[in-house]
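Q: My labmate handed me this sequence with no annotations at all. I'd like to see what the chain might look like in three dimensions before we decide whether it's worth expressing. Could you predict it?
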Amino acid sequence: MSWIADLDMCASAGILEFDAPAYIHGTKPRYYGHPDFPTIPGELPPIKEQPKKDEFKPSGDPAFNNPKWKKWLFGALVIGAAAFGLYKIPAIKNKLSSINLGGLKNIPSQIWDGIKSGWNKFVGLFKKGPTPTP
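A: Here is what I predict for the chain of 134 residues:
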């Protein structure tokens, strides 16, 4: 239904005494009083039953309704903004410039050496040692 039909229904039911849509539009009224419209029933449609208690029933978390690309884009923007903000702080900028990046080349070999020594210790637990002679 449209708002015009709704106001006409209010006039037909006796709530309004005039043509409200014509008054809103500033045009000549179509009727005065409480006309019986053939397209509008004499009775109003039933109203939904009111709840017994006041409660809020959420329809779901709106954060789960966002597509993944929006979540990734938002995360990238937040991380980029945080990095840019931290870079603009002079104390942090000075510390970042004093970091020596030459030691980063040795990190993969140190990790590999740690893995090898850990594996050798693990395998050493299961090797049989020399049996004692009686």
